[in-house]
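ugh ok fine here u go
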Amino acid sequence: MVTTPTQNSPRPKLPNGVRIYALSDIHGCAHLLEQMFAVIDADMANSRPFRAIEVFLGDYIDRGPDSRHTLDLLIDRSRRRNTVFLKGNHEAYFTSVLDDPSRTADWFQFGGLQTLMSYGISATPDLSKDEQSDLVRELTSVMPPQHIAFLRQLRPTFICGDFFFVHAGVRPGVPLSEQREQDLLWIRDEFLQSKKRFGKYVVHGHTPVRQAELLENRANIDTGAYATGNLTLLSIQGNSMLAI
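structure:
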């Protein structure tokens, strides 16, 4: 459990009455997602916030064991709760594979084989061009249409109060309104090493850390769920942040 550090300047703040629950980089770990839903539900039943928003920072698929069930859980959640779903680099790459099957081999390097297996499809890494096209056709034929629609409709960012939610981060020195999607989904070193303020307090994932990092200019909540079994939940209300 990590709480926000003491800051020299005013802490970022959400509008009165709003509570945000943020999760990132689920990577097919449906069982961990179900556990975090139980934590959120218990907290909401106990505290009854005026308005709760559940914000998911991308990378729902690949690497972990059950991408299919993860998407089922998220889509079902969206029907019952106030949810925001952001795009991760894995979703961006997956939809590019649907449009261009020649990228399938590279997708396998990102954990795509595990996603295929969750839909009951097996494949070897060394597929010919025709075999790649056949594989993508098979995948789209077995994927529920709502899964494909969900993955294609993800948004790149979400802003609430003083907080800016994004998958990977932002490029320092570039206004938030002018950020390129490539950076929002993929950036690492230039963002992670920056001590500057970004105009808003950035909440992100993408780069795994041992435990959530709540720093003065950003919070990283990717704790490598598929490898560590630790999926972090960040709760924000007012100017208070708590990572569980």
